[in-house]
């Protein structure tokens, strides 16, 4: 097979897809084979994602923009669909794979047995995520959003149960409405631009006449609402903590990246479509992102304090993370964007680890398990899925100590305390807000920045208060009758691995930030991206066949 | 001449079918029983199938034929399901 | 009306005739559906549309396209065949459902479950209909 | 052979259907044959009771009769609807004991009765072989009985039994 | 025609939105259905309304793009219809599961407090 | 190795030791102590060895690039001041380790203790030698975290947990504020490098952001150093093991605040803001805490308040802004560390030996432990500021400084008096400590029989007390040069002349000292009897405990208010969420029009066709009817929705989209059946007129109605505007129309777009369908019907009962009769439907149809068999494995796409050719057909899977029902 490197770009979409589909041919009892195939493909995915990142970014390429464009069906841009690999998308791919592998391994402990087709759904979720990050076409983005959402519905509902079904119902209803808004927005944009390719849109939008401009803005605004729902902006985000808390732990762990898809799209499209407009930073859209982000941080903070279960707490942490990112995007400054990207990576890893950890800790209280048991018992028919619940791996000694350490690490990460990457992330954002030196030096700092500063600090504090509250209750003052949670090695290793990644992020903060800065620079100056896409030529045939151009 | 005759015939037929659809709708809305509504829907399907056939004549284009074919061959499935629901309380036993 | 002007007048007239017959019958049928008072009367009405209503318009279409395309185009007739075959299914099912519902509601205008016997007394109908049927069955035996 | 072509008559009908849909050409004939064979396999999988057509030569006659009756009853019913009041006083149920037992024959009878305006197949009791009809214009019950028994059932019995 | 269709879309959306805001899951699914129709029509109408110009070309003929309806919105609607079908089915099953587990068909899984 | 590199060892050693300590076995008390002691002493030796490099006022610097882009580097910088702290941290650290070896019980999990202690030492060390403000903040927060862990060491004790948490929250908050403040400083200076910052004092003080930065930094420092009003965490932290208190709460942790103030003193001090904020905090802390200390009954509590008070003294000194005061502050930091550490250790010994720290119980211990008592007395004297001890020297310098003029304010004027009174209080509590514990009659009912501790345990105290004495008597010869190095490194060229003599002659400070001494003793005598019995805490203020206020505030803020806010600004209900979503969308979508308005001037209108208008009249009626009926007449609503779908479908035909119409119609049919299948499981609902007719309900409905009207109106407007907009000439549609046939091999442009130009969309779309089918299937495997819908439907019950009650009928005969004719027709329709499916599939590329339509058609065919004959009947005959269909479809689609790689083309590149087949003629064959076949297979599989999965629920609940019946016996 002619596997020239350019086909690597589509591999993040195809690998999970093919693996997931092949699993459909395996019997449900061949669980070990299924597990092997899906873990293996996720490892391959991780390797390829890292390779792709290396293709678009090497340390000495920080000042040039390398992109790889993949023309699906070999049709020339901007007519058909293409995939575009740039720094941002490759970073999101790596992040996705980095979350996927631990979540998947974690699920092997017990969750993948809680229902059928877990691995397929999981892999197809990865396909949806990767497709959404790679695609350079607005409608294709919708399609991959739907792939991702459909799989996420399946993963939220995985194992069924009252909580999950109730949460799933709300989640699905709201996301269905969001999808409809997405369609309306895309349709309006198409009606005034006549194109769907993102790069082409970036060229056409500034040239639109005044009458159509209103329509375009209306479409873009409706589209943004769809993205903001997914990103979890207040007041469109009440479903999020409930859903994430109800979702099975490995699902929630991979969902940590899902709210970031909304952020990713907002960041990419707003800068691509409107970034060339010098008035954009002061525009209403940017302001809404900024203030909405601040409101979201506030609400997340309040929720973090008010949450009674760790799951909801983690859900509200997602909101804080989203709010911070939205507000950062709303500031439309390259430095802030770079900081926000670092924050995105760090907080995603931390939240993912937290969701898995919570389940392990709660296992002591035996809540999740009992919910599952009730469902299975209530409806008479025996379930072959749960019959053979044998232990894979070894239960680890000093469980509480290990869990406690991980919990502490999560607290530190989410509260933005040193020494893990949560601190660095918060610092780089704050530092960018008050960018020292050269251009900075503003004697007047706008009130919003103060608010942002205060909220960043206060949200960290609230996280600290809430997590110390529950951490102390869980680890330091365990109720008498709590059984020691039975935690398997393959469940705690993923958590530890994610936390170690944040440590790596901290230690390697320099190179990582250089990458983020380069990413932010290309986002804010998308000319090379646009030209790179538009100039891509179709492959010419070795043997004569009708070609394009 | 041909064109005029055909135009009037087609227009009359379309309007007649349109009115027929309205009448079917009236039955769908007024009921009074579920079976009346189902009957109304079935008639609406059939009338619209005819409308599409006439539309095909009007446009001289046979591309719209499939839609009539589908209503004709498969449109009854929905009605069957509705009727069975009324009769058995369950669509598939 | 792309090709309308090219049509020979006989074809035009035939087409117009069948169109009007078909549409007219369909309209009458739908009017009946709307107008008639009892459900069992109403089920007769739409068959106007599904029989000659459909046939008329399908024939008009066949003539039109056969003349325009100068070859025999018959596929519209298939529609008529399918409609003819499937309409009874829906009507049978529907009327049976209506009958069932009317019987469980002790509607006196419908035939009894045992058509060879007389209608049961009103007093019996008020009771559990199942019991009534049971008695009826035994008596018959 | 039987497994490959389980329903020869059906295959022919299907090929005709295909040709009507896709147009008449040699290619379409071959394609249609192939499709028809596959389609009959679909039916064969369900293995429904296989109808035995004893007198298929009577089929055209049946069709002609039905065609005529439908035209006639269209006119009749349309007339009643247009002239009659809201409630058709003459409509009503009637019970007909049947002799025909073949399911396919019964199905065709039901299609004829229901497809023809003015009569509707309401209920059928297989144990007693009794049919309940609803007749739109029930002036002369024996005429209807005659129509069903002698005009349709007789022919169908000839064809199928 | 534009006026008729846009009014139609508007009323479909209005009815659908009203139903989406109702407390019973069944109302919501019907609402989703109505809004889906409207959105499909909306996307479709972005290609402008042209009668009798289906985007089916003639083999070998010279192609004048103005003589065909815009095929892109149609392709998008097709995708949207399929996805809408899938999600409707899913929502239906989830509402059934919710009804089964909670015993109620209220969207929140419990009857509102009186 | 360079001396600079040794700086890393100062930090790395403790952390490495900490990691090692953590993995040692639980009972390795001696190994742990040896390890920790070695680390401390090694670090001490390294630090000591570095003195020559910094004694000349130079700073040792070392830097590793970390995050250069943001100005954060791993910069270490040791000057005299940092060196002094390094010595305290490692030196006292060593003594504490030694002490802890004997203090900790063999049952305690010591690996954790020593691990945390070493980590804390490392963090503290890092904090003092950080050469970058952000690095400093990092280590600062680390000290908070490790101190939290140390305070909560005995976490089975609720007080320890609470104390630990409080300290973490307060110092953590302070740390975050500090970070913000330091970032502001970095903003002003343009660098976080300590050297650059220290060189930019004037710029900082003149900058507009000086005050916010100052306030934020002071918040950090004051919380850490337990200054009023943030002092209350410290007494609560006394639940920590005593070695921890001796280390953290005398020498290290609490000193971090004043360390920072001193570190930044050159750039921040000297302004009014500095003086007032810091002075007020320092003076009130100094006085109040000394007063509070008097009334403590817990030994460690007394020491804790004393510590706070002394830190207040240091803060006050720093607030004054004069270099001499700074000298005094630095000096007092050292002195306080020595005497307070020894006092804590002594208190620990008393607690350890006597079993209590309650001064009401302790009495006359001198006779049991004379040596310890003596040592404690000397240290207390130092604390009280008795001459010949180190505490006296720095206190004299303090008194002297209070007399100077600093800002001429009232605060300034009050200062000497406050200082003297606080001094007197210090004497009082020191005397009380000694007198109560060691003198008086022998305590009788002590939990344990007290005696001298092991000698090694006392050694650290002896050592520290010796230091107090030596420094107190010959300061110039001992501590003098080092202090000078420290002072110079802070004050640089501003270093004042000062002398460390014991005797300065009789001057005002001496008189103040004497006054304080005498006054303090007198006060003790006056209060002696009261104190012997009183409750913990000062009279009248005992209920006013910072802890309670803090707890209350925390609960109110972080719980009650938070929950109220969450409930007020959030919701758990779906309806408000959807309302907000749609309201937001409405506002977002219409906002651009408010500015620009809507221009209807040049619409491209096509004339209104009356039939089309009638059609939409029907559509509208159906939509409204469905909306109206959906609550109580579900079936009617479904039927009406079907009507609206039909109108939609016709509209597609009308405006040239036959493909859409076909698909819409087929989907419509399947959806109707699907919803009907579900309807069986929904609860019976009968219309209740009075239901929710309250004003609230009406308001809500009105509100919803308004939103519905708004959304509908908005959509109508936008749709109208878009439809009447002039078509674009440069739309990408042109490309597709022109090339569909020539390059895509198909005449049906929509289909060519779907399977070729935008085949990737279809690829995703079928994936969605597949995923949903799998999810539906998975969810329904766990389906549990509600109790009231578990029974078979009433119709079936009646019909079965009827059959049952008739001897000539068998069960199921009614339904058999009922379905006999329809099911024959439906069965015989099956081959025709298969034929139609093939037809739609094959012609799709050129004419309306395609894989999706074909797939649904086939699925409808299968569905029809289920409708006709029931699940069992069909499944006895047709062995459908929908998941395999789904898998095959998706696989075929992807393989078709991947196939193009073989020829070196991207995914989904299609190829087509016109094959010349004998008899049939030219046949266009496109690879896209295989892709479309994949679509077909998937659609059949997915649709069948969903429908069958729902249909199976009836069977499954039937099975459950019969199982139940067996258990409970026959029903009636
Ligand atoms: Na999300
Ligand atoms: Na009839």
UniProtKB/TrEMBL annotation, chain B:
InterPro entries, per database record: MrpF/PhaF-like
Descriptive protein name: PH adaptation potassium efflux system protein F
Origin organism lineage: Bacteria, Pseudomonadati, Pseudomonadota, Betaproteobacteria, Nitrosomonadales
Family per similarity comment: Belongs to the CPA3 antiporters (TC 2.A.63) subunit F family.
Major subcellular location class: membrane
PANTHER family named among the record's database cross-references: NA(+)/H(+) ANTIPORTER SUBUNIT F1, NA(+)_H(+) ANTIPORTER SUBUNIT F
Organism of origin: Nitrosomonas europaea (strain ATCC 19718 / CIP 103999 / KCTC 2705 / NBRC 14298)
Highest taxon in the source lineage: Bacteria
Membrane-crossing segments per the record: 6-26, 38-57, 63-87
Cellular location(s): Cell membrane
Keyword Cytoplasm among UniProt keywords: no
UniProtKB/TrEMBL annotation, chain C:
PANTHER family per the UniProt record, alphabetical: ANTIPORTER SUBUNIT MNHG2-RELATED
Phylogenetic lineage: Bacteria, Pseudomonadati, Pseudomonadota, Betaproteobacteria, Nitrosomonadales
GO molecular function: sodium:proton antiporter activity
InterPro entries xref list: PhaG_MnhG_YufB
Protein name per its UniProtKB record: Multisubunit potassium/proton antiporter, PhaG subunit
Keyword Oxidoreductase in record: no
Transmembrane segments: 12-36, 48-67, 73-94
Pfam families, alphabetized: PhaG_MnhG_YufB
Domain of life: Bacteria
Keywords: Membrane, Transmembrane, Transmembrane helix
Organism: Nitrosomonas europaea (strain ATCC 19718 / CIP 103999 / KCTC 2705 / NBRC 14298)
Spans annotated as Disordered: 106-141
UniProtKB/TrEMBL annotation, chain E:
NCBIfam families xref list: PRK09094.1 (NF006573)
Top-rank taxon: Bacteria
Native source organism of the sequence: Nitrosomonas europaea (strain ATCC 19718 / CIP 103999 / KCTC 2705 / NBRC 14298)
A single cellular component GO annotation: plasma membrane
Transmembrane segments annotated in the record for this chain: 6-21, 28-47, 75-97
Lipid bilayer topology: Multi-pass membrane protein
PANTHER family recorded: ANTIPORTER SUBUNIT MNHC2-RELATED (PTHR34583:SF2)
UniProt keyword terms in alphabetical order: Cell membrane, Membrane, Transmembrane, Transmembrane helix
Name assigned to this protein: Multisubunit potassium/proton antiporter, PhaC subunit
Pfam families: Oxidored_q2
InterPro entries (UniProt xref): CPA3_antiporter_subunitC, NUOK/Mnh_C1-like
From TrEMBL, chain F:
Start and end residues of each NADH-Ubiquinone oxidoreductase (complex I) chain 5 N-terminal domain: 71-114
Domain MrpA C-terminal/MbhD: 619-684
Transmembrane domains' residue ranges: 6-26, 33-54, 81-101, 113-131, 166-189, 209-234, 246-268, 274-295, 371-394, 414-440, 461-482, 502-527, 578-598, 610-628, 635-655, 661-682, 702-720, 762-780, 818-842, 848-868, 889-908, 928-951
Enzymatic class: oxidoreductase
Superkingdom of origin organism: Bacteria
Signal peptide location: none
Subcellular location: Cell membrane; Membrane
UniProt domain NADH:quinone oxidoreductase/Mrp antiporter transmembrane: residue ranges: 130-403
Domain MrpA C-terminal/MbhE: from-to ranges: 700-797
Any one of the GO CC terms: plasma membrane
Known EC number: 1.6.5.3
Entry membrane topology: Multi-pass membrane protein
Record key words, sorted: Antiport, Cell membrane, Hydrogen ion transport, Ion transport, Membrane, Oxidoreductase, Transmembrane, Transmembrane helix, Transport, Ubiquinone
Molecular function, one GO term: oxidoreductase activity
Domain Na+/H+ antiporter MnhB subunit-related protein: 823-944
Alphabetical GO biological process terms: proton transmembrane transport
Name this polypeptide is given: NADH-ubiquinone oxidoreductase subunit 5 (Chain L)
Originating species: Nitrosomonas europaea (strain ATCC 19718 / CIP 103999 / KCTC 2705 / NBRC 14298)
């Amino acid at each position: 097979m002619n596997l020239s490197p350019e086909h690597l770009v589509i591999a993040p979409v195809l690998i999970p897809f093919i693996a997931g589909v092949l699993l459909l041919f395996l019997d449900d009892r061949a669980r070990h084979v299924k597990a092997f195939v899906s873990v293996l493909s996720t490892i391959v995915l991780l390797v390829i994602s890292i390779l792709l990142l290396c293709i678009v970014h090497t340390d000495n390429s920080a000042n040039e923009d390398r992109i790889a464009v993949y023309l699906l069906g070999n049709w020339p841009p901007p007519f058909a669909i293409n995939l575009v690999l740039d720094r941002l998308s490759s970073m999101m791919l790596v992040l996705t794979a980095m979350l996927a592998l631990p979540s998947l391994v974690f699920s092997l402990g017990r969750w993948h047995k809680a229902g059928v087709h877990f691995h397929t759904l999981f892999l197809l979720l990865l396909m949806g995520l990767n497709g959404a990050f790679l695609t350079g076409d607005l409608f294709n983005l919708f399609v991959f959003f739907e792939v991702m959402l459909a799989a996420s519905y399946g993963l939220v509902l995985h194992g069924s149960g009252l909580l999950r079904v109730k949460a799933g119902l709300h989640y699905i209803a709201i996301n269905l409405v969001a999808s409809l808004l997405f369609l309306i927005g895309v349709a309006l944009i198409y009606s005034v631009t006549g194109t769907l390719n993102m790069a082409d849109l970036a060229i056409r939008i500034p040239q639109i006449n005044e009458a159509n401009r209103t329509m375009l803005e209306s479409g873009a605004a409706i589209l943004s609402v769809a993205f903001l729902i997914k990103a979890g902006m207040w007041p469109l985000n009440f479903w999020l903590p409930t859903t994430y808390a109800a979702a099975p732990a490995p699902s929630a762990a991979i969902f940590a990246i899902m709210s970031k898809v909304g952020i990713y799209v907002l960041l990419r499209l707003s800068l691509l479509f409107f970034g060339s407009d010098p008035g954009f930073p002061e525009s209403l859209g940017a302001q809404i992102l900024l203030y909405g982000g601040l409101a979201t941080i506030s609400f997340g903070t309040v929720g973090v304090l008010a949450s009674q279960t760790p799951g909801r707490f983690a859900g509200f942490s997602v909101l804080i993370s989203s709010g911070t990112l939205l507000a950062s995007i709303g500031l439309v400054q390259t430095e802030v964007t770079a900081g926000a990207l670092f924050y995105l990576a760090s907080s995603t890893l931390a939240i993912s680890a937290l969701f898995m950890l919570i389940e392990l800790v709660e296992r002591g209280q035996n809540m999740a398990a009992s919910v599952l048991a009730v469902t299975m018992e209530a409806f008479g028919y025996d379930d072959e899925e749960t019959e053979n619940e044998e232990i894979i791996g070894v239960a680890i000694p000093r469980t509480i100590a290990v869990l406690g350490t991980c919990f502490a690490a999560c607290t530190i990460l989410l509260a933005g305390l040193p020494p893990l990457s949560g601190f660095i992330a918060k610092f780089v954002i704050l530092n960018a807000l008050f960018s020292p030196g050269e251009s900075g030096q503003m004697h007047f700092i706008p009130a919003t920045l103060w608010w942002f500063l205060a909220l960043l600090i206060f949200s960290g504090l609230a996280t600290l208060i809430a997590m110390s509250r529950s951490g102390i209750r869980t680890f330091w003052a365990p109720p008498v009758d709590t059984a020691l949670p039975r935690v398997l090695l393959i469940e705690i290793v993923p958590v530890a691995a994610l936390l170690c990644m944040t440590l790596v992020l901290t230690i390697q903060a320099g190179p990582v930030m250089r990458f983020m800065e380069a990413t932010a620079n290309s986002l804010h100056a998308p000319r090379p991206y646009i030209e790179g896409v538009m100039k891509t030529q179709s492959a010419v045939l070795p043997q004569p066949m009708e070609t394009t151009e | 001449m041909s064109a005029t005759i055909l135009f009037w015939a087609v227009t009359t037929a379309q309007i007649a079918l349109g009115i027929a659809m309205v009448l079917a709708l009236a039955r769908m809305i007024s009921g009074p029983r579920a079976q009346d509504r189902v009957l109304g829907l079935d008639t609406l399907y059939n009338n619209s199938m005819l409308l599409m056939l006439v539309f095909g004549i009007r446009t001289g284009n046979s591309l719209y034929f499939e839609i009539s074919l589908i209503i004709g061959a498969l449109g009854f499935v929905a009605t069957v399901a509705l009727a069975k629901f009324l009769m058995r309380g369950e669509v598939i036993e | 009306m792309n090709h309308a002007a090219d049509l020979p007048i006989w074809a035009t007239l035939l087409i117009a005739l069948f169109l009007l017959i078909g549409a007219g019958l369909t309209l009458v049928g739908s009017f009946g559906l709307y107008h008639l008072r009892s459900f069992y009367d109403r089920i007769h009405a739409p068959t106007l549309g599904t029989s000659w209503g459909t046939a008329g318009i399908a024939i008009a279409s066949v003539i039109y396209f056969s003349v325009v395309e100068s070859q025999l185009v018959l596929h519209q007739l298939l529609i008529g065949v399918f409609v003819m075959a499937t309409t009874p299914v829906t009507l049978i099912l529907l009327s049976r459902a209506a009958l069932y519902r009317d019987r469980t509601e002790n509607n006196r205008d419908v035939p009894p479950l045992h058509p060879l016997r007389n209608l049961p007394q009103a007093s019996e109908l008020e009771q559990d209909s199942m019991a009534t049927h049971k008695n009826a069955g035994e008596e018959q035996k | 052979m039987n497994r490959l072509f389980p329903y020869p008559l059906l295959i022919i009908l299907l090929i005709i259907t295909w040709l009507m849909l896709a147009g008449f050409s040699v290619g379409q004939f071959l394609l249609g044959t192939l499709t028809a064979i596959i389609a009959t396999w679909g039916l064969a999988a369900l293995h429904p009771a296989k109808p035995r057509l004893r007198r298929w030569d009577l089929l055209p006659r049946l069709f002609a009769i039905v065609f005529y009756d439908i035209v006639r009853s269209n006119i009749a019913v349309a007339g009643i609807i247009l002239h009659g009041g809201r409630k058709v006083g003459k409509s009503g149920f009637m019970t007909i004991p049947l002799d025909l037992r073949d399911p396919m024959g019964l199905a065709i009878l039901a299609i004829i009765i229901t497809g023809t305006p003015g009569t509707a197949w309401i209920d059928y009791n297989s144990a007693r072989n009794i049919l309940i009809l609803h007749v739109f214009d029930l002036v002369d019950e024996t005429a209807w009985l005659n129509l069903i028994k002698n005009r349709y059932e007789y022919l169908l019995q000839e064809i199928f039994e | 025609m534009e006026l008729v269709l846009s009014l139609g879309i508007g009323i479909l959306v209005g009815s659908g939105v009203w139903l989406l805001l109702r407390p019973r899951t069944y109302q919501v699914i019907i609402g989703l259905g109505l809004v889906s129709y409207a959105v499909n029509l909306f996307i479709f109408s972005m290609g402008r309304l042209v009668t009798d110009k289906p985007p089916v070309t003639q083999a070998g003929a010279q192609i004048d793009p103005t003589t065909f309806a815009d095929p892109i919105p149609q392709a998008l609607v097709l995708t949207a219809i399929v996805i809408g079908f899938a999600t409707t089915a899913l929502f239906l099953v989830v509402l059934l599961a919710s009804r089964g587990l909670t015993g109620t068909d209220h969207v929140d899984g419990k009857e509102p407090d009186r | 190795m360079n001396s600079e590199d040794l700086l890393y060892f100062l930090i790395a050693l403790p952390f490495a030791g900490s990691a090692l300590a953590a993995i040692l076995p639980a009972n390795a008390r001696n190994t742990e102590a040896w390890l920790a002691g070695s680390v401390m002493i090694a670090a001490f030796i390294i630090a000591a060895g570095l003195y020559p490099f910094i004694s000349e006022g130079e700073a040792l610097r070392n830097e590793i690039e970390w995050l250069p882009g943001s100005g954060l580097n791993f910069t270490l910088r040791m000057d005299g001041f940092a060196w002094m702290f390094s010595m305290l941290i490692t030196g006292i650290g060593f003594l504490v380790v030694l002490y802890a070896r004997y203090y900790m019980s063999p049952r305690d999990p010591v690996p954790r203790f020593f691990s945390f202690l070493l980590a804390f030492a490392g963090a503290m060390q890092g904090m003092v030698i950080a050469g970058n403000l952000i690095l400093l903040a990092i280590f600062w927060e680390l000290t908070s975290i490790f101190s939290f862990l140390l305070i909560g060491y005995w976490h089975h004790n609720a007080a320890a947990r609470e104390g630990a948490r409080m300290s973490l929250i307060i110092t953590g908050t302070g740390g975050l504020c500090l970070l913000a403040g330091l970032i502001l400083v970095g903003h002003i200076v343009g660098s976080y490098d300590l050297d650059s910052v220290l060189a930019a004092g004037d710029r900082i003080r003149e900058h507009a952001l000086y005050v916010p930065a100052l306030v934020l930094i002071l918040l950090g420092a004051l919380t850490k150093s337990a200054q009023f009003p943030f002092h209350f965490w410290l007494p609560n932290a006394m639940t920590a093991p005593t070695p921890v208190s001796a280390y953290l709460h005398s020498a290290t942790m609490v000193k971090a605040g004043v360390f920072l103030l001193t570190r930044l003193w050159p750039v921040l001090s000297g302004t009014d803001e500095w003086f007032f904020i810091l002075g007020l905090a320092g003076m009130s802390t100094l006085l109040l805490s000394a007063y509070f200390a008097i009334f403590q009954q817990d030994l460690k509590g007394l020491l804790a308040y004393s510590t706070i008070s002394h830190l207040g003294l240091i803060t006050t000194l720093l607030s004054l802004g004069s270099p001499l005061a700074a000298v005094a502050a630095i000096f007092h930091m050292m002195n306080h560390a020595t005497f307070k550490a020894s006092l804590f250790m002594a208190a620990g010994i008393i607690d350890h030996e006597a079993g209590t720290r309650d001064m009401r119980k302790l009495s006359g211990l001198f006779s049991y432990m004379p040596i310890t008592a003596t040592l404690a007395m000397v240290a207390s004297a130092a604390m009280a500021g008795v001459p010949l001890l180190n505490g006296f020297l720095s206190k004299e310098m303090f008194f002297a400084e209070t007399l100077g003029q600093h800002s001429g304010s009232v605060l300034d004027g009050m200062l000497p008096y406050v200082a003297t009174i606080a001094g007197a209080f210090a004497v009082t509590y020191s005397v009380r400590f000694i007198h109560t514990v060691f003198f008086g009659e022998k305590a009788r009912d002590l939990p344990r029989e007290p005696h001298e501790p092991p000698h090694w345990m006392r050694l650290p105290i002896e050592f520290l007390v010796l230091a107090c004495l030596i420094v107190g008597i010959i300061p110039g010869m001992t501590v003098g040069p080092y202090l000078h190095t420290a002072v110079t490194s802070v004050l640089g060229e501003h270093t004042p002349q000062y002398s460390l003599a014991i005797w300065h002659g009789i001057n005002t400070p001496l008189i103040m000292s004497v006054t304080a001494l005498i006054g303090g003793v007198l006060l003790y005598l006056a209060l002696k009897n009261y104190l012997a019995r009183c409750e913990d805490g000062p009279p009248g203020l005992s209920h006013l405990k910072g802890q309670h206020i803090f707890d209350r505030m925390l609960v109110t803020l972080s719980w009650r208010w938070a929950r109220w806010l969450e409930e007020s600004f959030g919701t758990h209900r779906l309806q408000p969420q959807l309302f907000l979503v749609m309201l937001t969308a409405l506002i977002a979508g219409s906002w651009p029009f408010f500015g620009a308005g809507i221009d209807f001037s040049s619409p491209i209108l096509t004339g209104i066709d009356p039939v089309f208008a009638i059609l939409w009249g029907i559509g509208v009626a159906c939509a409204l009817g469905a909306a109206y009926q959906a609550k109580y007449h579900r079936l009617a609503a479904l039927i009406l929705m079907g009507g609206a779908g039909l109108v939609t479908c016709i509209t597609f035909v009308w405006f040239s989209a036959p493909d859409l119409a076909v698909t819409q119609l087929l989907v419509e049919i399947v959806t109707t059946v699907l919803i009907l299948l579900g309807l069986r499981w929904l609860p019976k609902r009968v219309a209740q007129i009075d239901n929710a007719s309250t004003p609230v309900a009406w308001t809500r409905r009105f509100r919803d109605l308004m939103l519905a009207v708004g959304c509908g109106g908005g959509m109508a407007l936008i749709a109208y505007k878009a439809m009447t907009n002039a078509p674009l000439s440069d739309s990408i549609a042109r490309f597709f129309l022109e090339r569909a046939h020539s390059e895509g091999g198909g005449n049906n442009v929509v289909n060519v777009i779907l399977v070729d130009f935008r085949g990737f969309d279809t690829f995703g779309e079928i994936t969605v369908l597949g995923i949903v089918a799998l999810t539906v299937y998975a969810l329904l495997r766990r389906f549990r019907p509600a109790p009231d819908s578990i029974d078979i439907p009433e119709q079936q019950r009646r019909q079965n009962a009827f059959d049952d009650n008739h001897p000539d009928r068998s069960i199921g005969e009614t339904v058999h009769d009922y379905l006999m004719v329809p099911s024959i027709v439906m069965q015989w329709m099956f081959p025709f439907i298969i034929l139609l499916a093939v037809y739609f599939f094959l012609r799709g590329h050129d004419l309306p149809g395609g894989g999706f339509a074909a797939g649904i058609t086939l699925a409808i065919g299968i569905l029809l068999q289920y409708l006709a004959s029931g699940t069992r009947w069909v499944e006895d005959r047709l062995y459908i494995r929908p998941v395999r269909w789904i898998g095959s479809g998706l696989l075929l689609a992807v393989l078709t796409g991947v196939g193009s790689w073989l020829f070196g083309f991207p995914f989904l590149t299609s190829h087509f050719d016109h094959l010349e087949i004998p008899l049939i003629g030219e046949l266009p064959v496109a690879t896209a057909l295989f892709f479309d076949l994949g679509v077909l297979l998937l659609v059949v599989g997915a649709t069948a899977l969903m429908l069958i999965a729902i249909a199976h629920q009836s069977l499954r609940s039937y099975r459950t029902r019969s199982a139940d019946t067996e258990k409970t016996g026959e029903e009636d």
